[in-house]
Amino acid sequence: MQRDGRLSAAGRTKKVAELDDALLELCAPVWVLALPPLEESPENNYRLLVNEVMRLMLDNQLFTFVTASPAPQPNQQSKPVSGTNNEAERTLRGSAEARKTGRTNKTAVGTRRRTIIVSVLESLRLYLPTFTLASIIAEIDHWRQAGQSCFTQLLKKMKLACTAESILDKVMPVPDG
Fold it and tell me: Does the pTM exceed 0.90?
């Protein structure tokens, strides 16, 4: 609906309200029963699905991609908020395929190094106005001169805290040795 362009912001909000009403009509008969957890069964799976859909709907999280303004990116482009995670999955597909086919590093240190490099390059793809080898080298040289990366600068600009320990350190600790 957002990319369609025929509906205004108010029209999209109205369509979301209509979808919410339709979901409420479908889910309410099961949701209001507040059924207790059952053993693994199709009925229990349906109950869990209904509860999750209702939770997301009540938190206004189901159709945010329809009403959200296009998201500005650091590279000065704005993209409509996607209704799926397909783009993120496509971005990560190369690394996943490399792991699956054994084209990866055989050590924890090599795996960590590859993870960092791929993460930085994919982040730069969104950050730089033009994603070329020359622009990547120029950006990294700028980091060296400035003493901090563009990502640190972006965190400061957005007034977000940078944690002392990276998420990567928690997920993939630095190997000993």
Answer: no
Contact 1, 7 (CB under 8 A): yes
Whole-angstrom distance, CA of residue 57 vs CA of residue 25:
12
Sorted by sequence, the CB contacts under 8 Å of residue 118 that are 6+ apart come out as 95
* Cα–Cα dist 76/35, whole Å: 49
Neighbours of 124 (CB within 10 A): 19
The tens digit of pLDDT for each residue in 110-137 reads 777 887 888 888 888 888 888 999 999 9
Task: Convert 6-37 to b/e letters by CB count within 10 Å (16 or more is b).
Answer: eeeeeebeebbeeeeeebeeebeebbeeeeee
